[in-house]
Amino acid sequence: MNTKVWIVDKNVDNLESNPQIVDAANFLRENEVVALPTETVYGLGGNAESDEAVAEIFAAKGRPGDNPLIIHIADKEQLSRFVSEVPRTAEVLMDAFWPGPLTIVFNKKEGVLSEKATAGLSTVAVRMPDHPVALALLKSCGLPIAAPSANSSGKPSPTSAEHVLDDLNGKIAGVLDGGPTGVGVESTVVDCTEAVPVILRPGGVTKEQLEAVIGEVRVDPALTDEASKPKSPGMKYKHYAPNAPLYLVSGTRDFLQRLVEEKEREGLSVGVLTTEEYVNQFTADVVLACGHRAELETVAAALYDTLRRFNQLKVDIIFSEMFPNEGVGHAIMNRLLKAAGNKIIGE
Ligand code: TXA
Ligand code: MG
Is the beta carbon of 18 within 6 A of some atom in ligand 1? Predict the structure, then answer.
């Protein structure tokens, strides 16, 4: 398959009549799959009401069939078509955070969406992305669009059209290239079918931000306790992994540098993931700065690109600094721990 690349300037007015977007929307209406930019990461979109389109998404990504997709909409009115009830907490969250990096799990109306999209669950995860190109595309096609991150399953999520093409060129109908994404980590997934909403995946909207508008929010115990079964099926898979084994290092920078030297003596090419503040404190084959530690949003924005750059630079092993588990740091640590298969080396 020849993968079309449509370059779109996200800053122009009247995106809905932009011929590139109209063309991509026509592909979606014909049940083809198309990658699109969102404010978090690039998504691989397909008509959520079509088994054929949804099957294409799973096939292109090599995604396990028991991992449901997030449904993207441009207008709250679309919810009533496939959601059976909108709890009060969800109303408040939608008003506060949509469009934006928050996915809400609702009880599902049966028989509308492809069963494959929701992996046969009685619930459905929905979000309204805060990206002009995504919103224009959703409005132009008028469909609910199922869109997982547009990477091969298990790889770091894509934050640019190049990342999408690295994984999926030839496997999808096209990609709308709207430049690099902003937030850099995926949306927060919050289950509003429970009386006290539960965070199933930390992401772009923090627990503190949610609690500021709806009060108490719980965190799925599976996020911190390896023994419990996550309620968000995708959270059980190893994910975001670079090709080389990744270790998180808990300890001083001197300790991390000693680990590097030990591996270099064994003849390995070693990579270090640090931030701009400390990039000059390490000596290794590859030292990459992932944003500024003083501003965790910049670490989130650069995280997946940094993990992918280690692949291009072909290191044998990667040591990473850790980040504070607060605010968006919660999402950063969740993704890094998964990428590392939970391997932490302590001093
Ligand atoms: O920022 C994002 O959310 C991006 C962009 C493209 O919108 N999308 C994304 O999708 O990250 P994906 O498929 O990579 O992750 C979806 C997550 C998975 O962990 C999945 O298990 C969970 O959402 N999920 C989907 N439907 C669910 C449901 N009904 N109940 C619980 N978890 C659900
Ligand atoms: Mg994903």
Answer: no
